[in-house]
Amino acid sequence: MTDRSTFSANSPTPGTRRPAMTPIAHLVHALCFGALACLATTGVQAQTAQAETVRRYDIAAGALEVTLNQLGREAGLLIAFSSATTEGLRSNGVSGSLTIEQALARALAGTGLIAVRTPAGGYVLRSAPAGAAPAGSSGQVQTMAPVTVRAQSENDSAWGKVSGYVAHRGSTATKTDALLQEVPQSVSVITRDRMDDQGVRTLNDAIQYTAGLRANTAGANPADDSLSLRGFSQFSGAFYLDGMRLMPMGTLGFFGMEPYGAERVEVLKGPSSVLYGQNAPGGIVNFVAKRPTAETVRQVELLFGSHARKQAAFDFGGKLDDDGSLQYRLVGLARDASQQIDYMKDDRLYLAPSLTWTPDARTSVTLLSFFQKNRAMQSSNVQFNALNGDNPNGRLPLTRFLGEPGFDHEETKVASLGYEARHTFDSGWTVKQNFRYLHADNHEQYMFRWGNLIDDTVTNREIDSRDGKGSVYSLDTSISGQFVTGALRHDMLAGVDYSRSNTSFQSYIADGPQIDIYRPVYGAPLDLAALTPDALRREHNRQLGLYAQDRMAWQRWVLTVGGRKEWTRQEQLNLLAAPATSTVRKPGAFTGRAGLTYLADNGLAPYASYTESFAPVSGADRLDRPFKPETAKQVEVGVKYAPDTNLAITLAAFELHRQNVLTTDSEAPNFSVQQGEVRSRGIEFEVVAQPTRQLKVLASLTYNPLKVTRANPDQWGDNYQGNSPYEVPKNMASVWGDYAFDGVLRGLSAGAGLRHVGDSWGDAENSFKVPGFTLADLSLRYDLGAARSQWRGLTLSVTAKNLFDKYHVASCFSARACNYGEQRNLVARVGYVW
Questions:
Q1: Quick check: 706 and 231 in contact, CB under 8 A?
Q2: pLDDT digits (tens, 9 = 90+) for 22-52
Q3: Residues lower than pLDDT 50 in the chain
Q4: CA 99, CA 783: separation in Å to the nearest integer?
Q5: Pair 823, 804: CB distance under 8 Å
Q6: Which of 127, 476, 509, 582 ranks highest by number of CB atoms within 10 Å?
Q7: What is the pLDDT of residues 319-357, one digit of tens each?
């Protein structure tokens, strides 16, 4: 960690013996190494002059970390250290007219630490052996061997465990281990402790108390984590895992990622193409996987709950040798369960082994893998007048199945293998490479319900059978480091990423029998021989991006600038056409980001930023010109407040414009043109706090009106300009509190929360609204070790979602297509840690 006015210095844990690299990776590494040599030379020259400068200091005694932070700000000095190094240490302060080395010596006096010069133009802390020279001096100090610090504090790593709910570091916003206070965008981190306290079963459960996110847009659907971020829809295909896109480009059906395998979930809000390339305008949802750890992890649990849920899970990890250079993690889960909707399954197998090799303090290689098999499908939509109380037959039960038992099912299998390798040089610069290969296979067959209700009871159905499979190779190589130019301190990141994905998709349809949704009779004959192809296609996608980011600090100001140039190649082969046709497109884009943050001594950090994103669009206009990528631009201003490690508050206001949106071609209504635009404005307020050892609190408010600002009339004369998109509530709010009792109730913890989702439009025409709703959640946990020492490590818990079983409609995208709300769901858990 550096002083909080600058940047978070990555602890030297990283790299690998050189793995086999692509030619692109070789080129980037060569360029980066050449830049390092130049930077190291200029850093030494600047450092020599800076070290001899005499300044006046008046820094009071206090926590060593605070003293070093203030010293770094006043001296314009980069001091790199981990939180574990300074934890629990105090400084006698610094006063008088002193050189930098004299000031460092006084700050570190009596702490057992010394400051060692680095070639890059700064200092790094080391443990002082007996008889060492004063901190900050030359001679013996500079020849000291670095001390390996493997056990870092829980809040020290953006990829590690956090104790409680309040995270102060993250990796998604900058691709580095950064203080969230310095990031000029709104970022939310859902920690493992928070997920465990709330009994999280899905990603939607995890984000339900987060500002700016609408969870469960698809309602009672465990098959896919459908959500909206700042008003724009996202599905699992657009999520990220450890900083790289999870799924291949193309149609692959539904997939819900297993949250038990996540150490944390990070949400970067707003356009984010500058570091990640093509993605949705609302932001990025990034799973950070559980990783090997030197600390021993031994956990097993059994769950039983609503809908015949039976689940077993385990999490093991620790050192494989005495010095901790080999560490492992093995996470697994098996579930046999039904869904809320009759005749539908929610089965899952999940296994995630990983291994870290750390031959020295500067080099590490982590192998990461997982296999997941889901048997769960998204339910077919239902007509609104069967749910809103207007139907003379009443409201449809939220368990009603509209398919055919024994026929409707979906299965998805995903397997992934990759590595993260990093090495930190003597100068402090770090080279990092991430690689992942992932393969996905999906099959679904179901009765698709369509059209209006006939006589208020009967609906048409269609037989659908779909198969999708695909694979993706992802490679991201970067170099990062810190240096000083004059009064500016820089945290630089530059990299290249490449991905290649191939997918195939085939869909067959046929007419199916009707069904009375109020008095269903199943078992009607299905003419599967009548299935005819609806879509047969293959897609090949390539993406190459060059990106750079510089976070510059001067006194209490941090300026973040970044840019990315991306090239893509998209080839789509349509096998349904006669003869087969192939379309090749090569859209590209340059995206940027700039933001300014002021870091006040009292923990306030006002900021302002501008950022962009883009996403390719398939198809062509009436003149057969390929569509340009959609773009998004956002301006955001806000303030963050983190006076200590137990509180984080973010207040953000933003305006986001999504451009090049498809709309009807006025001259040829059967075609589209890119003249549409959608504007998302909003205010988000989020509090994450642990005011006492026993109490943890979450609160959020979201105000997010969306508007279609440009659109053309369609072929029926309807124009959506001025309307709001469907499924997006203007207002949302939530509050959660968790309290650990003491005294005679010691061992008992209770958590309770309320989630409010406001009204939303039910279709693009804005012809009707879906009513808002407020749901209550409850969690009770008991540590049996508090009652008897021989039961230490054994815990019991009960979690209830939608405690009062409120009937509600989750969302609609037309009057003929609405999603069931989730009913009350109870889960009992028995866990054991040893």
A1: yes
A2: 444 444 344 344 433 433 333 334 344 445 5
A3: 1-50, 132-155
A4: 54
A5: no
A6: 476
A7: 999 888 999 999 999 999 999 999 999 999 999 999 999
Rounded to an integer, what is the distance from CA 678 to the centroid of its chain?
24
User: How far apart are alpha carbons 183 and 272 in whole angstroms?
Assistant: 13
Residues 799, 78: Cα–Cα separation, whole Å: 47
What would the two tokens of residue 354 be? 């990983």
Helix and strand element counts for the chain (H, E): 7, 45
- What's the Rg (C-alpha) of the chain? 28
| Strand positions, DSSP E, 555-646 | 557-574, 581-585, 588-598, 604-615, 630-641
Distance (Å, whole) CA 158 – CA 628: 36
CB atoms within 10 A of CB 48: 11
Amino acid in position 293: T
Straight-line distance from the first to the last Cα atom of the chain, in angstroms, rounded to the nearest whole number: 32
Q: What pLDDT is attached to residue 44? A: 39
In the 8-state DSSP scheme, what is residue 432? Answer: E
Instruction: Give the pLDDT score at 160.
Output: 85
| Residue with token string 């509090």 | 687
- The pLDDT assigned to 146 comes to 35
| DSSP helix, strand, coil percent of the chain (3-state; round to 5) | 10, 50, 40
**Which residues are paired to 654 by β-bridges?**
636, 682
Residues 6 or more apart whose Cβ sits within 8 Å of residue 429: 32, 36, 39, 120, 479, 480, 481
Q: What's the confidence (pLDDT) of residue 100?
A: 85
Torsion of CA 611, 617, 620, 621, to 10 degrees: -50
Report the half-sphere exposure of 239 (CA within 13 A, side-chain side). 24
How confident is the model at residue 91, as a pLDDT?
Answer: 87
Distance, in Å, from the CA atom of 466 to the CA atom of 832, rounded to the nearest integer, reads 42
Q: In angstroms, what CA-CA distances link 785 with 163, 172, 834?
A: 20, 37, 11
Reference 113, options 92, 85, 138, 140; nearest CA is 85
Structure tokens at 450: 């369509």
CB of 263 closer than 8 Å to CB of 279: no
Residue with token string 């109730």: 745
DSSP 540: E
Q: Which of 222, 282, 249 is nearest to 502 (CA)?
A: 249
The three-state secondary structure class of 147 is: coil
Identify whether the C-beta of residue 13 lies closer than 8 Å to the C-beta of residue 361.
Answer: yes
CB 547 within 8 A of CB 528: no
Residues present in the chain in total? 834
Residue 222: CB atoms within 10 Å: 26
CB 732 within 8 A of CB 756: yes
Residue 728 burial (10 A CB sphere; 0-12, 13-18, 19+): buried
* Full DSSP string of 152-200: --TTS-TTS--SSS---EESTTTSS-EEGGG-SS-EEEEEHHHHHHTT-
Q: How far apart are CA 503 and CA 618, in angstroms?
A: 15
DSSP 678-704: EEEEEEEEEEEE--SSSEEEEEEEEE-
Decide the pairing of beta strands 79-80 and 309-319. Answer: unpaired
Q: 736 is written with which tokens?
A: 């959660």
Q: Are 685 and 732 in contact (CB under 8 A)?
A: no
For residue 687, what are the β-bridge partners?
A: 649, 699
pLDDT at 354: 98
What is the spatial distance between Cα 738 and Cα 754, in angstroms, rounded to a whole number? Answer: 12
Q: Would you state the pLDDT for residue 84?
A: 62
Reduced to 3 states (helix: H, G, I; strand: E, B; else coil), residue 323 is coil
